Fold this sequence. Notes:
The protein is an alpha+beta fold. The chain has helices spanning 30-42, 44-55, 70-74, 78-84, 169-196, 199-215, 251-266, 274-282, 290-311, 320-332, 342-351, 356-362, 374-377, 383-396, 413-425, 457-466, 469-474, 493-500, 573-577, and strands at residues 6-8, 11-13, 118-121, 125-131, 137-138, 160-162, 165-167, 512-514, 519-524, 531-536, 550-555, 558-559, 600-607, 610-616. A hairpin with a 4-residue loop joins strand 8 and strand 9. The longest helix has 28 residues, at 169-196.
Amino acid sequence: MKRRILLMGGLIMWTAAMASPKDGPTYYTPERIEAARQNLARYDWAKDLFERIQTGDALRYYIGPEYGPAATYAEQSDEFMWMLQPTTTIPRAMDHEARAICPVHGTKVRDINPWCPYNIDPVNHPYKIQCMLGGEWYPSNDYAAGDMTSGDFPDDGSGCVIDGRRYFFLREYAHMAYGSVVIPALRSLSQAYALTGDPRYGRKGAILLARLASEYPNHDDRQDRLFYALYNGRDPHYRWKTGGMITDLIWETFCLEGAVYAYDGLFSYMDQDPDMLAFLKEKGLPADSADDLRGYIEHYLVRAGMTGLLNGAIHGNEGHHQAAALACALVLDDYSDASPNSVEMVDYTFHGAGHAAHLLVNGLTRDGGGHESPSYNRIKLDLIRVDQAMASIRQHQPGLFPLDRYPDLFGEPKARSIFDWYVDVTLLDAYLPPIGDTGGIGELKRVDPRFYSLLMEQNVYAFGRYGDARLARAATSPDGTPFPGELFEPYPADGIAAALEQPESQIDRGSRLFDGYGMAILASGEDQQRRAALLNYTSLLGHRQNDHLTLGLYARGLDWLPDLGYPLSWDYRWQWDSNSLAHNTVTVDETQPRQDFGGFGRLFASEGGVHVIVADHDPYPMDRVEPARDGA
Length: 632
């Protein structure tokens, strides 16, 4: 089929004459599907994961649900699946003061959740949100059925005005539906189809994916649908935030990645169902053939997302955008002169904004810690997916990406150290150091040993990569249960079992120093008598708090000096959550310390039952003692 390419604003303009460069799955390959089926036949964790694919995860606001209920969606009508993704003519951003407020309960709902105190149920209550406090549903009209006005709280997409205040029920729903419903649904339906070949999953997934492509914003003919289009491209409250597509620039990274991999999983179904193509044509899509549909999805979803990555509209924490870009490169499989193409995505990942070629070398401290709080440093492990995708790309395109320019990311010795770091910083096999934006105050109770490392499943990859017996131990829970692996990758069960028999698999929980990161753990005792003290002298670059020289104390399964941890609301973090007065440290003259470098260890010793750490920090330089933030 002849290809015609028109360039508009950096994005290829799709025409019905364009054929997809892709001729088959490049992610859900026959080899990976066979590995998944082997895992399902052998391992309980794989069977449990397939059950999750069928029944779905509990709905939560964006960060949480990975899988939607494929079995439920397979029974829905085609029209239901089409409407599952709301139109992006409904905005998703809103003024800050309009968030998390109820027409009945006002701002009291923020006591439950200051970000999104609503539930949604797209199957039984489509296009409605439920107040978590009172249980009532909004809006009162049935938007999905075309009713725009009925009841006391109608919303046609522009909001509902009650006593002079505008409530944005449908904006809240449209935003939550994309990340918490549509992307998990696509992941489940595509994987269920890849594993079973059941056409019910393929049809419903393909319809939903086509709908998403028809609604996905871009930087050419759908600029008015971009996330911050109503606000001139910038968040009206958090002014540093720009970009975004259906959701904001950070969350769009993993939404795009999920949608692109779903396309790969559904690719083979699209030429098996002429009736589905007829349905999509009735909806206005130019889908005379499967090739037309694939070209449409690639243009309006995959390449639109690639353009967003290249222009910065899609950009997350380190690991997020790199994983999204390599997903696009692998799945699109386009090495032609069209633009954006797979080569551009690989270059973006390794040497552009992704700078992955040097990230795990220059972005880790000498002991394996990163530049952020422990919880955020973990996002760098998204580079595992980058590493795996790049290995697949090299299989398809041998010789195109030489190792001296596109290095093996986890072949670097320093990159390996991040896995060891997470093993070593774990306290009482249950806690992560509460440094910066990490953790929080939970219920006061004794916690039994839960893990040797927060990474858990990532250590399955690490063991398979390095064969280190200690990482085999970290790939299991303290009761010996192996952690799940990646469903579509071979699982090294025999290797883990053999490594656990080696003395080197035992993890030393004695006193330990992380002078590169800026932390020391003093530890003693055995079993239920274990105890540990923590001194934090970090100088973080990202997700830091005014917690210089904070102390931590853990004993008998309890955190005795809990930290407020992750901010409840970014609006008051410097006045409260991140304020030095809210940490187990000192504050000088009621003045907030500067966030400068300056932490360093002076003495560390652990001998004969005596454990010592001496460290300094200089957060109050003489020439700068003014508050770090206004109002703090």
